Amino acid sequence: MNILMVTMQMQIGGAETHILELCRALVHRGHHITLASNGGVYADMLEKEGVELVTLPLHTKSPGAVAASFAGLDRCIRQGNAWGDYDLVHAHARIPAWICGGLWDRYRKHPLKRNGKEVPLFRFVTTAHLNFSINPLWRRISRWGERTMSVSEDIVDYLVDEYGFARERIQTTINGIDLEKFSPDTDFTPILEEFGLERNRRRLVYMSRLDEDRAAYAYTVARIAPALAKNHPDLDILIVGGGTEEAAIRNLAEQANEKAGRRIVTMTGGRADINRFCAAADVFVGVSRSVLEAMAAAKPVIVAGNQGALGIFDESKLADAMDTNFCCRGCGDFTDEQLLAEIETMLAESPETLSERGNWCRDVIKQYYTAERMAGDYEELYTRAMASPVVSDGESDVILSGYYGFGNMGDESLLSVISASLAKACPGVKITALTRFPKKDAYRTGLRCVNRMKLFSVWREMGRGKLFLSGGGSLLQDATSGKSLQYYTLLLSLAKKRGMQTMVYANGIGPIRREKNRALTGKTVSACDRISVRDPDSLEELAAMGVDRAKIRLSADPAFLLVPPAKEERTKILRRLGLADLEEGRYVVLSLRRLGRGREHEGDIRLAGEAGKLCDILQQKFGLTAVLVPMQPQNDAAICAMAAEGASADVRTIHPVSAEDMLAVTAGAKMAVGMRLHCLIYAAAAGVPVIGLSYDPKIDALMKCLHQPYVYDAGTAEAETLAAAVEEVLQKEDAVRETIREAAELMRERCMEDVKTAAGIIKNKR
Length: 766
Prior knowledge:
48% of the residues lie in helices and 17% in strands. The chain is built from 29 helices and 28 strands.
């Protein structure tokens, strides 16, 4: 892959070291890297290792520098490098991201051409290293790319909460550490000689950039140095780093030395050989990358920095440290006395105990924080970006129509999985989605979105499109409203008039009760170029409405193509959703939705009461905790709350924000009991047993496809009946899981046929 890496500058610092190690690892994996920055010592290192450098004034937001950087990057992208055009542009920090985002917008509207041919649009990703200060202007102009990498879970929350960026388009990685460079075997003799330090003395090392927003604990260490000197005559303290606060801290260190009557504190200034200082430490104080590097060198560490402190690091603090990328955001601060007490505790420990602490720290780095793992995370990010639809302001290959933008997790996951699977099968595909709130939905999905109710805009888009997909869900039905059915059939008819190929894509059909609606549906669907349905009952419904049976292909709900997150990622998601204390296989997912339209609908009250009783039985009889999931909050939250209030057991209610969240939760469940179709599908895709609560024929149809008899009318089902079904499933759990796994695999195969069909149409039209 040919990658343009863009950052402010490459002087010594945490984010800069992250980029340094990333570039090294990517080059080692065979990728071609060009680095654009204002230069610096790390840039010089990378140039010697085969990275091409472009020097631009990206380190400042002055108008002249921004203009020069914009022009320079524009020239760089137009020319490419020795390996050709850039596949991907990766920006770090807000100024580079804003400039790269502007260029990305330009090339989307006016594609770059070479030798008369259009050059494929580069993919645009970013990395968020910090929780930046924010104001209305920065919130408005900040760019986070098609996909974003975050270095900690709390930064993910920050991007979602402050910028509204879609969680499902953010991945997390770690600060990868070079275990060979940062090793207990590193020779630190040169720094002992440089600073006149004796090898047989103990050393406390504090390391950070000494700027206003980084150096709080450098001041603390300097202030408590006289007390440490008094209690530990064999101790030397090294404060490693440079920055705007260096002079003030150096003055404080000199006062400490004078008070102690000897040189207790040594100021080293900014250094490139920080691995030697890590290796020289007996006790290390710091945060973020510096503390990880000390851990790699097998040093016992005290985690403390400007954003908070955890103190002496051990296994009990691992989760909090990892969630904040070892920056301790939100963990509270230490007073001078508290930090002194932590250091005194560690200095009082035996050499053997300190060695054990240090070795455990190095094992943590080996397990979670290698540079190779970081590079692997980024390769996955790049692969996802390259395989996602191209956002174009021009022609569209595909227009996707569905119940998108209404907050229903099932329908939103259909939009995501259909677009992603088409992009993977047909690289460079341009997709436009018809949604409720185009601006918000575009930001959330990364797709070009058009207001589904502005028919003139839709008509115009159809004139620039190739394939119209009526995509997924129960779109063709009149149970909720005849107007809904008329809308979706109208779109199919308009697309045909505009010369587009049309495809009914894995739809659930019905119920359609009115004869005129059945006639309209049969006529409209018969005129489509391709037709697929998600279950046999839907096939029979279309055939009964006069659609040629030979033209209808039996498929499955596209959500079967979704893959549950890996175990480590599931653990992160469960922790974020407040389920960290629940073991996998010790809870049941329960999905409820309203039966009626009134606030106090009798059927809802009854259903909530039975659900509450079921929650109690699950815990008392089977030792299982019920986890209630409102998948469409505006319709589900109230009835889930009623069920929880009516239960005496420990009932959890979670609020997932994406299909990935639901996949993680259902994959770890003992089983799922659900009214929402996609709750059952997410569970089945992971091979988890399901019990259906039917309020619509689509639930019955799914359970038939899964060969599961455990489906009950949501309006009449009783807790005892459902509990008996739970008991039966538990008794033959292995067989049930195997049946569901086999059925889900068949569903996936059917789904892929739809993808191939649509991709074939797109390629032919091109």
